[in-house]
Write a structure and sequence with these properties.
mainly alpha, elongated
């Protein structure tokens, strides 16, 4: 029996924090191992956020006895991505205060110009993470949607 009181927002917030923790650990490893400046290093954050969104939707589906509405699943995935991105953005600001040359590592392939401030990096992280998360949620819900979800039949 699932937890009928669980909302997409609660679930998304909880899994957003867990996803952010995983991305922060990975970012720390990348910075101190010296491969943070590589463009490919940021690709793993997308994999981590995809896994977090999938886990959030799967947990929400289990809590609702395998019957969730499409938009509830998309909502929990989108909130997961947004919370994870905001927390990672704040972490990036804190890291750039502790290690000021952190932003210098990303200048080689920077799309925003050489004068990338911590605020611009924060906003870019939120924008890319949230928009990417919405797209990932949209794709993930094709897999997680309820088997009896047939929206076209209701139109006729």
């Amino acid at each position: 029996m699932g937890d009928a009181r669980l909302t997409p927002e609660q679930n998304g917030f909880r899994y957003g924090l867990l996803t952010a923790a995983a991305m922060i650990v990975y970012t720390l490893i990348a910075v101190f191992a010296g491969f943070f400046d590589r463009l490919e290093a940021g690709g793993l954050n997308l994999v981590i956020i995809s896994i977090g969104i999938s886990m959030a939707i799967a947990n929400f589906k289990r809590a609702k006895d395998n019957r969730i509405a499409y938009l509830q699943g998309m909502g929990t995935g989108s909130i997961t991505a947004m919370v994870a991105s905001i927390v990672l953005g704040f972490f990036f600001i804190v890291m750039s205060a502790i290690k000021p040359n952190l932003l210098d590592l990303s200048h080689a392939r920077d799309l925003f110009g050489y004068d990338l401030s911590a605020l611009m990096a924060f906003l870019a992280i939120i924008l890319m993470g949230t928009l990417g998360g919405v797209i990932i949620s949209l794709v993930a819900m094709q897999y997680f949607k309820s088997p009896d979800h047939k929206p076209i039949e209701g139109i006729e």
